[in-house]
Amino acid sequence: PTALPCSRGQPPDCPSRAHAGRRRRSVKMMDGPPKTAGSGGNDPGNVTYQFKGEDHTLGNALRYMLMKNPDVDFAGYTVPHPSEPYMNVRVQTHEGVKADDCVKEGLANISSVCDHVLKTYNKAVKKHAKQQQGS
Fold first, then answer.
1. Which residue ranges in the chain fall short of pLDDT 70?
2. How far apart are CA 26 and CA 116, in angstroms?
3. What span, in angstroms and rounded, lies between the C-alpha atoms of 105 and 84?
4. Backbone angles phi, psi at 74, to 5 degrees
5. Helix (H, G, I), strand (E, B) or coil at 14
6. HSE, side-chain direction, 13 A CA sphere, residue 118
7. Residues 63, 79: contact at Cβ < 8 Å?
8. Residue 62 near residue 110 (C-beta atoms within 8 A)
9. How far apart are CA 102 and CA 96, in angstroms?
10. What's the CA gap between 101 and 74, in Å, rounded?
11. Dist. CA 39–CA 33, nearest whole Å
12. DSSP code, position 53
């Protein structure tokens, strides 16, 4: 089945959500080989990733970066239970675009943002230290 149009900004219970027309195809463990879930063949543009030892901090940042990508139809994450060390990220992309590539790009973007924040912070600390010495 094909996905319905992208529905960014609509409530989660909206029937026209982008993921409504597609079934769960595969789950990829980030610390092991991919596992198939549900029926049907593997769809490289319709994947659920499971990150071990991650929570809302990475989940929300990755979801945000994925949704900024114009090739991504849907991106969402869940932390099934606080006592379990897993975070699941669901990604659906346009036809012909691999979810793996979009996730790698999203993670690289998060890394770039973190590098920029660290660089900006370090500059501010140095500037503050100079001001303190001059006063």
1. 1-41
2. 34
3. 27
4. -150, 140
5. coil
6. 6
7. no
8. yes
9. 12
10. 14
11. 18
12. T
Q: Which tokens in the block code for residue 117?
A: 């924040």
Cα 127 from chain centroid (whole Å): 35
The pLDDT of residue 101 is 96
Q: Which 8-state DSSP code applies to residue 112?
A: H
Give the per-residue pLDDT at 30: 59
CA dist., res. 115 & res. 58, Å (int): 15
The pLDDT value given to residue 42: 81
Cβ-based neighbours of 77, under 8 Å, separated by 6 or more: 56, 59, 60, 62, 63, 87, 88, 89, 90
Rg of the chain (C-alpha set): 19
Spatial separation of the C-alpha atoms in residues 18 and 38, rounded to whole Å: 18
In which residue are the tokens 């198939």 written?
36
Assess contact for 57 and 68: CB atoms under 8 A: no
85: phi then psi, degrees, rounded to nearest 5 = -85, 40
Can you give the pLDDT at residue 45?
A: 94
